[in-house]
Design a protein that fits this description.
Chain lengths: ~120, ~110
């Protein structure tokens, strides 16, 4: 079964750090670009970051550039997001998502992990 | 940045009725235009990719059309499980930057 399982969310103070993980199974992980997408309470979906299958290319939304770092370990079939200098505006459910090979869409999603930034 | 606008913000319909959702881009979109359904407490589900191709397992009542800057998602006859929020999404060719529309909520009239 193709599956993505996120972990690592929680409550953190402004200025703090968290690391999210997303474990993949059921497909050849290294063949696919992977992304993080978030949904803040009461708001819509927002793309956060993407990493290429090899890990050599990384891309970020302006809202997180310089604070968040996406990474992957293809030997462990795991995607990561290191989140530093957290702000209240980063409060959201964070989803990891698998991109299709050639269509620019996300065909597999994890269940999401909640990140709350509050003092 | 290619901004996506969705209309209407809310669509109130009854089961069995036809739903027509619009997505407009501020700049011409490559073929990378997708539609998702999201229900409360759940992850988004891919419905349509490349503007008009149904994803695996998606019922035939869902169809997508359009090109350039104007796209449409049509649900031919609403089932009770179709009441949800629908998002369009595009990806730029390079660098790969993804943008979502603000969503259309389809609720029960």
């Amino acid at each position: 079964e193709v599956q993505l399982v996120e972990s690592g969310g929680g409550l953190e103070q402004p200025g703090g750090s968290l690391r999210l993980s997303c474990e993949a199974s059921g497909f050849t992980f290294s063949n696919y670009a992977m992304s993080w997408v978030r949904r803040a309470p009461g708001k819509g979906l927002e793309w956060v970051s993407t990493i290429s299958g090899s890990g050599g290319g990384t891309f970020y939304a302006d809202s997180v550039k310089g604070r968040f770092t996406i990474a992957r370990d293809n030997s462990k079939n795991t995607l990561y997001m290191q989140m530093n200098s957290l702000r209240a505006g980063d409060t959201a459910v964070y989803f990891c998502a698998k991109e299709t090979l050639d269509d620019g869409a996300f065909d597999i999603w994890g269940q999401g992990t909640m990140v709350t930034v509050s003092s | 940045e290619n901004v996506l606008t969705q209309s209407p913000a809310t669509l109130s319909l009854s089961p069995g009725e036809r739903a027509t959702l619009s997505c407009r881009a501020s700049q011409s979109v490559s073929s990378y235009l997708a539609w998702y359904q999201q229900k409360p407490g759940q992850a988004p589900r891919l419905l349509i990719y490349d503007a008009s191709n149904r994803a695996t397992g998606i019922p035939a009542r869902f169809s997508g059309s359009g090109s350039g800057t104007d796209f449409t998602l049509t649900i031919s006859s609403l089932e009770p499980e179709d009441f949800a929020v629908y998002y369009c999404q595009q990806r730029s060719n390079w660098p790969p930057i993804f943008t979502f529309g603000p969503g259309t909520k389809v609720d029960i009239k």
